[in-house]
Amino acid sequence: MLFEFLLPAWSPLTSGRLGVRNEAHRKEVRILLQSKFNAKGHIELVWDTLECRSPHHRQIGMNSMFSMTGFARAETRTTDFQLIWEIKTVNHRYLETTFKLPESLRGVEPTLRERARSQLGRGKLDAVLKLEGGQSAGPITVNRLLLQNLIESAKDIGQLTPEATPITQGQLLAWPGVLVASDRSLDDITQATLMLFDQAMEGLVQSRAQEGEKLGQLVLANLDAMATLLQALAPVVDTLPQLQQKRLQERLTGLETKVDDERLAQEVALLAQKADVREELDRLSIHMEQARALIEADGPHGRRLDFLTQELNREANTLGAKAICSEISSASVELKILVEQIREQVQNIQ
Fold first, then answer.
1. Tens of pLDDT along 314-328?
2. Rounded-to-integer distance, Cα 110 and Cα 117, Å
3. Are 158 and 166 in contact (CB under 8 A)?
4. CB 32 within 8 Å of CB 4
5. Which of 66, 88, 152, 235 is positioned for an S-S bond with 212, CB 3.0–4.6 A?
6. Cα dist from 302 to 227, 297, 323, whole Å
7. How far apart are CA 326 and CA 50, in angstroms?
8. Where do the domains of the chain lie?
9. d(CA 141, CA 126)
């Protein structure tokens, strides 16, 4: 019986053999453990080291940002068979997994689904397994009960539709489940399928992590551009009361109407209060800081960033509605463009 598992390279079992004697050399060892009977009839455990690698190769940090888009391919070949896994993921609101497997391996689908769910949070996963038998494949038996049922069904169909083409021997043999591999051969293929799937999932997670890092950089770049716009608006906001008073005074002059200075000051104060955008700018700054902190925090990030994007868009719209000068109007438009760009990237983040 074969078992495969991971051990720290600095554990007592592995450190002497690998020459790793302190925790500064943090590695992982993939161990293959085999149980067999020795000459005396006692069970003997034989183990061997398959590879030594960094734990980062197996699992990305929790604070990494992942894209929902990725692709991975893994294959293995023995003297009896060849296996090829092709896995891809795209955007999806939840996690949805679809497997396309040979009929003989349908029983392993629940295990594959659980392994996928343990590593992915969101996205639509499509996994295709290709199995090709070699020249020295294991023994094959015929499912006689199924074959007899197919033959009888073909006879019934022939009586109902005499003009139909009779079923051929090749078509009967190609029917799923008619030819069955031996249990031993199927066990070997099943074990290899699971091990290869884990390898493909590692590649998929790495792919999603690499793209997620790039998406995070794009989001941060847009946040930096938004911060630059807000800084440019600070001196403009300070001049809004004087601008309101000047415009109101010009209108009154055009109407040739005299207004009490105190009443004029009250109107200016009221208009300035309605046009004050400091609150919107403050909330924009707060949401931007929250987005930055979220990107650096533990995942998942997608849904939270999507919520913050909605809040940023709301504040940018309010800023545009309150604008009384071209500088604020232009800044509002630019902010909404940047927020939309962030939203497009966030839709692809897990």
1. 999 998 888 878 888
2. 11
3. yes
4. yes
5. 66
6. 22, 12, 32
7. 67
8. 1-58, 141-173, 212-346
9. 31
